[in-house]
UniProtKB/TrEMBL annotation, chain A:
Residues 95-323 form the ABC transmembrane type-1 domain. Part of the binding-protein-dependent transport system for phosphate; probably responsible for the translocation of the substrate across the membrane. It comes from Intrasporangium calvum. NCBIfam families: phosphate_pstC. The lineage of its organism: Bacteria, Bacillati, Actinomycetota, Actinomycetes, Micrococcales. This is Phosphate transport system permease protein. Belongs to the binding-protein-dependent transport system permease family. CysTW subfamily. It is a multi-pass membrane protein. Keywords: Cell membrane, Membrane, Phosphate transport, Transmembrane, Transmembrane helix, Transport. Pfam families: BPD_transp_1. The chain crosses the membrane at residues 36-61, 94-120, 132-153, 181-201, 250-269, 304-327. Residues 1-27 are annotated as: Disordered.
From TrEMBL, chain B:
CDD domains: ABC_PstB_phosphate_transporter (cd03260). GO terms for molecular function: ATP binding. Keywords: ATP-binding, Nucleotide-binding, Translocase, Transport. Residues 5-247 form the ABC transporter domain. The keyword Zinc does not apply. The keyword Kinase does not apply. This is Phosphate ABC transporter ATP-binding protein PstB. Transmembrane segments: none annotated.
Amino acid sequence: MSTVTGVSAADELPGPDGRKPLTGDRASTGRLGDRLFGGAATLSGVIVIAMVSLIAVFLLAQALPALTNNSENFLTSRVWAPGGEKPAFGILEFLWTTVAASTIAMLLAVPVGVAVALFLTQYAPMWMRKPAASLVDLLAAIPSIVYGLWGLMTFRAFVKPVEQFLQDNFGWFPLFAPTKITGGTIFFIGIVLAIMVLPIVTALSREVFDQTPVAHKEGALALGATRWEMIRTAVLPFGKPGVISASMLALGRALGETIAVTFLVSALSDGTDWTWSLFNGGETFASKIANNAAEFSNPSKTGAYIAAGLVLFVLTFVVNSIARIVIERRKAFTE
Amino acid sequence: MAKRIDVTDLNVYYGDFKAVEGVTMTVEPRSVTAFIGPSGCGKSTFLRTLNRMHEVIPGGRVEGKVMLDDQDLYAASMDPVRVRRTVGMVFQRPNPFPTMSIYDNVAAGLRLNGVRGKSTLDGIVEESLKGANLWNEVKDRLGKPGAGLSGGQQQRLCIARAIAVQPQVLLMDEPCSALDPISTLAIEDLINELKTSYTIVIVTHNMQQAARVSDRTAFFNLRATGEPGRLVEIDDTTRIFNNPSQKQTEDYISGRFG
């Protein structure tokens, strides 16, 4: 019912005699075509819901036995020794790495993506808009392994001095504390992820900004708004739900991105001291699971990894729910 | 507050297409001037050149001169943003900002102009809504979305939004064409009240409306599709409707054509 913009005329229109808005049943005519299509659509909906539920059940069923045998605190421990007689494992490190890298990615990608989308829809000369937009879409189509390779071979050298600068000048701040990691730090992973998700944010934001009704834009301009004021009064409020949806899709990709991260990240060796520094290494949920896929030898060991996967699942779910709530809360103020 | 508009030899182009040709007219302050004419005759296009809104459409440009009292609207030093703050506009379809409350819609232009302070804003918002004959209907729900009002109320909200910034001139592009007869009447009454303090120019497809609300009427026409529109004549409304000097005008208002 909510479209990508969170706006749907059908949500608002009352039916005849003050009845609920038009529903499937009211509109149905009972003809064969209608019943076939209705049935097919319902079936597809049921399949999607069933699949999500079954995945949740699978994750829970596999993870629970391992979790009950766990001798460490699952959420707060950094130990990862799921095999053996006395399995012990905790996800703190993966949770921190995943969340920190994704947060950096979003902090960079969302403002830049929105700015690029605004440029493409509001500022760029007409002849430039279409080709530039296709170029951005093309970025989204680059396989992540390519980003990984490029990050490793080329991009690392550019980020290194930035990291050095932050460590030298802001090292007193726990997030920027110096470390001895030379390879893929959380900070670096965050930047590569930002570049990967940037096209998603840009492409979807561009799409919604483009749909801003001319009437709203002219309304602002006729009041004597400058271009930027027009964007602030008409384009951004109209596009906000779309930008939030775009960011959620991007965040979903950042949280779950596997190949590029596995490729780049510097895993911490056992017994390394814990720090909050972004210049530390560490594994994300996805890279940890991918790196150890070969070890799924016994149910208890596998269960530990699946429990980690479950946390990722819940994390994505929570983030999406929050976004939905934000969009719904402002619904009265969209047409 | 109200100002006179003097237009001399104005041509309007969209890219290579000449949409309006050779318009010369004077719009008197504190009066209502109506533009009538068949579809595509350039009356809306010409209206937009009075606050440079035609520049929003790609390729839109003019040749000629538009003076607002002694200010040249197309002088090189004149910022279109400043022109639009002086010459307000109301559109064919009510276009309140959907994400804003009734209050914020009216305050939008003020905020753009840097007006701050709750009590100042409160005062102007109330005054503008009263000026648009909407205050009594919305005073208890100023925080509700503007898009929740009826079409006629939304249009009066847009008028309140336009007059809140105290323009010199108010342009109205078929402001009643999307409204029912009762809402139309409310807007027409409002126009009658507003003309005591503003110069009003209204484009309308409805000749009875032009006859009802305007002091002067301008008739636009075009020779054929693809040809530029031109001003046929402008005169007192009573003269245009009873004894026009051009045959074309008479044909149009008597329904023989258009």
